[in-house]
């Protein structure tokens, strides 16, 4: 059976350490070369990323007007010649059967997008190992998530029909470094008849954040962009938060939000984990302690990002209110 044509889109920013490995893995695919095109979008890199990309037989695109993964991916989508698009990040390495396996899930015409398996690439630090175990880049495609219209994919490894973007538009540019993939999936489940699915055989390895600073910054971005997701898809929640902030202040509002999610209780699991380790010094208890500490830090960073976004949203809201006052 003939393979369908597919466009592979790779956004890249200051990716000199990983882009070569990524492109090597794409060009080694067990897929007909005449059926695939590879578009690599340089998002105004300051290092040698551009030179490395141009040394490969791929299509080099440059995006310097919009500095974000959303803008880079949109550039790739607009220039893609084929009806199926595979997204992979510049810090990912694809299995040689990645394309061939992933594309099979799109034989089902009711499927609009497919998520592939993402594993850590040669984790060297505990933080990388934790991210692999905690599922920071896992897809959510259960029947329950579909019923709530909250199924989502991660564009570090995802296949989309181009028709999804023709119907819904491109990735939303308000998201900065996270959230745009969840946004397009939520929109697809609300405004098309397509569904999402998962293919564990479409495998890539991802180079996770290696140190605590990078780890926390990433979760700040997750929280920041999650607030814009709530504003777009659950405006009643954000409106209630505005009302609470008007009456009690932003910080108290987020303290209650923190408690409502039971995040406070979950973060406090650090203390019993510490007690178990100090009374046993077992390796398993040490791992559990480190996991609980990183979990707590991720939640605190997430809330910090939410607060920053919420303040920006309130500033815009207050300006609009002032503008319409007589």
From TrEMBL:
The keyword Transferase applies. Pfam families: Glycos_transf_2. This is Glycosyltransferase. The lineage of its organism: Bacteria, Pseudomonadati, Candidatus Auribacterota, Candidatus Auribacteria, Candidatus Auribacterales. Signal peptide: none annotated. It comes from Candidatus Auribacter fodinae. It comes from the Bacteria. GO terms for molecular function: transferase activity. Keywords: Transferase. Gene3D superfamilies: Spore Coat Polysaccharide Biosynthesis Protein SpsA, Chain A. Residues 7-168 form the Glycosyltransferase 2-like domain. InterPro entries: Glyco_trans_2-like, Glycosyltransf_2, Nucleotide-diphossugar_trans.
